[in-house]
Structures are given as C-alpha cells and as structure tokens.
Amino acid sequence: MSRPNVYVTRKVPEQALEILRSVASVTVWDREDVPPPREVILRELAQAEGVFSLLTDRIDAEVMAAAPRLKVVSNFAVGYDNIDIPAATKRGIVVTHTPDVLTETVADFTVCLMLAAARRLVEADRYTRDGKWKTWEPLLLAGQDIHHATLGLIGLGRIGAAVARRAQGFGMRVLYYDVVRREDLERSLSIAYLSLDDVLRDSDVISVHVPLSEHTRHLMGRAQFALMKNTAVFVNTSRGPVVDQRALAEALASRRIFAAGIDVFEQEPVSPDDPLLKLDNAIVVPHIASASIPTRIRMATLAAENLVAVLQGKRPPNPVNPEVLAK
Ligand code: GLV
After folding, report:
1. Can you tell me the distance from the alpha carbon of 9 to that of 51, in angstroms, rounded to the nearest whole number?
2. Measuring from atom 5 of ligand 1, which residue has the nearest CA?
3. Which in 18, 146, 194, 230 has the greatest CB count within 10 A?
4. Catalytic site residues?
5. Ligand 1 atom closest to the CA of 287, numbered from 1
6. Residue with CA nearest ligand 1 atom 1
7. What is the distance between the alpha carbons of residues 205 and 235, in angstroms, rounded to a whole number?
8. Ligand 1 lined by 53 (C-beta under 6 Å)
9. Ligand 1 within 6 A of 302 CB?
10. What topology is assigned to 5-99+293-324 in CATH?
11. Does residue 1 have a pLDDT over 70?
12. Burial level of 68, CB count in 10 A (0-12/13-18/19+)?
C-alpha cells in the first residue's frame, strides 16, 4: 500500500519529521521566516492525507474542500483558532493540538512579562545602554510591586491555573473570572471567583488566559481598561484579538493603566508603525511565550504523534473534535 502524504507547513524540529517519515511521505515548506502562501497550501493539500500546521496557517472550509483526501489537521499549538473546527468535523477530518506540554513554559513567561512590565525592566535596560545613567536617584525607573499584590486571571484553564500556582510564591492574592467556575481550584489554590468587572476593578496585575472565539474577541476593550486601577499591569499571552489593541495603546499612552507585557497581537507580525511600539510602558515580544527549546521540541513531537496516530487509525492523544473519532 502506498504511504500517505503529509504536508508540513514550516521547517520544524527534526525529531518531529522523523516520526512523520516513519509512516508517511513528507513534504516540508522549506522557509523558516515566512509561512507558505495560501495557493501553496491549497496545492499541497490537494494530495495530502495529513497536514502539520502552524498557528499562522488558516485551515478553513475552502482549504478543506480542496483537500479531498485529508484525514487530519495536526496543529503545532495549543490554540486552534486558525482552524475551522465545524468545517473539519462536517468532513470527518480530525483536528489535534498540543496542550499540557507547554503549560508550565507559558506560565513562566507570563510571570516574566508581569515582573518585567511592573519593574520596567526593558525600559531600564535601554536607559542604561543609551548612557542616560548619571547617578542613583530615589525614584529612578521606579515601578510597581508584584509581591503581595492582587492578581486577576481572566481565564482559569491549564495555563491560568499554572500562573496562579506561581503567584502563591509571591504571596499574591489571586482572583479569577471564567465562564466555567472551578471550585476545586478555588479551594486548592485559595483563589476567589468574581465577575469580570470586579476582577478588573480589584486587581493590581491582570493576565489573560482565554482561547480566542467569537465570545472572547475584544473581551478587553476601552470599557474594561476604564475599570482598571491606574497602577495596573496588564499581560496578554493568549491571543491578540482577545484585546482591542487600539484601546490598550490608548490606556497605556494616557497612563490610565501603568504598564503592559504583550506577547500576542491582533495582526501578527505587528506593524512597526503600531502605536503600542512607540510606548515605553509596553513590553512587546513576538508570540514566544511557549518558546523554550525543550517545550518547542516536545510540542513538535506531540503534533507528529497526533498526526501519525490518526493516519494509523488509532486514537490521537489530543483530539479537538473527538466526535469525529467516535463515528
Ligand atoms: C501558541 O500560541 C499556542 O497556542 O500554542
């Protein structure tokens, strides 16, 4: 029997390619710095049984319609808002993702952004390099405290809960809002559930951990920033469109809030002309919260394992639409 075709939409760690090559004939988009253009995806998937996709690839109903042999879309990410799940389910295509293996790494980076934004780390580095440091000054580059501050988590899934555990080490009081209440975690982590508005009003640090969907798009807008303290530090490591970026830039520019650490943007890559990039009180980084070397390798191998399992007719470790498997 001929080997199935798998298209990989970027150069990914070799360990993952080895897993794929053990069962399939593998074609890899050979650029690291740009995703394949849409016409390439449409052309390559015409013959493919599996696609190893990145969050930069839009795998929608049109792509699936052009891919009659497609059995599996394996996303190299925990988020899968780049994939039309109902369209996949309708066609019997299994979609998989890479949860769990990145949880602790993303939580580490979230705390890193909290601390860096609150204590003005990047601004201070720039100040020192620019030769501006003349003497010790009582309030030079003074920021906000994280220890014993109140942390407001918007979303208490795997990553939100991992951030809450780290916050305990800083003696923080933790509040959360989510559409699903987690009374088990409220007890085990001593955290309190409040309405979204109350979390925003009461918190010193606010960190967003929700998936992107039509319910969460622009969950954080002008009205939400208006509720925050003017000392608040805002962090987003989830998805850019969850935040109205223009409203965030306005809140930072007018000092309505103190600072922000932003890993994800409404448009990625963010335009060099974006107002956020002009602000000293915003730390901006290119969607790297899960980017530790071991975690990115583990995500890649897990995505490969998911893909291969489906091609072999087995249950993949991380299906997004398991109802397709039950059919
Ligand atoms: C990264 O943003 C991911 O969803 O894994």
Report:
1. 8
2. 77
3. 146
4. 239, 268, 287
5. 2
6. 77
7. 8
8. no
9. no
10. Rossmann fold (3.40.50)
11. no
12. exposed
